[in-house]
Amino acid sequence: MAEIMLDALAETLLMVSCSTLFSAAGGFGLSILLIMTGPHGLRPNPRVYTVLDIVVNLVRSFPFMILMIALIPFTRLVAGVAYGSGAAIVPLTVAAIPFMARLIEGSLLEVDPGVVEAARSFGASDRQILFRVMVKEALPSIVLNVAILAITLLGYSAMAGAIGGGGLGALAYNEGYIRFKADIMFCSVAVLILVVQCIQSGGNHLYKKLR
Fold first, then answer.
1. The domain 2-210: what is its CATH number?
2. E strand or H helix at 12, and its extent?
3. Is 200 helix (H, G, I), strand (E, B) or coil?
4. DSSP 81
5. What is the pTM of this model?
6. Closest Cα partner for 204 from 141, 137, 139, 144?
7. What does the domain layout of the chain look like in residue ranges?
8. How far is 46 from 53, CA to CA, in rounded Å?
């Protein structure tokens, strides 16, 4: 059982790490656009912001199971297959980008406006204000939000496993639930809890160092 568990854990870590990396990058880019074009942004643009806001809210409103099924053609196009741990990275990333964008947007909005105005008074450009002031000030919060994102994706990956995504979710469902193997079910849950604790502890440690 140990070998099966390790293989499932490796698949889960692959899905979570890759989708966290891709969605953090995509969410960061999207959050920058939201911050720049927002009502109190550096370059307000109501039309662009409204479109981005609607798209973000629309994707976030989809339950992950439904979104994963709806994205099967796109997943097959990108990954070549529609099932397995590699293919699951595609819907995980698509689902998490808007979520991460909102988290980072919130972190950037929490930056003291006085600091921004001080930088502007010294002649800093919008780019300098954004990256050297706002992002720098919000970095500890952003790091903590990445940990939250990874934990959320860990939960999503377990759901993905129930419909062919692989990993601990698939093991718990196919072996533990369908075949009534309680020991595999409990071990899968225990490993997931351990991974969550590791991710959160790592995020908290980095947050404290950056603060």
1. 1.10.3720.10
2. helix 2-37
3. helix
4. -
5. 0.88
6. 144
7. 2-210
8. 10
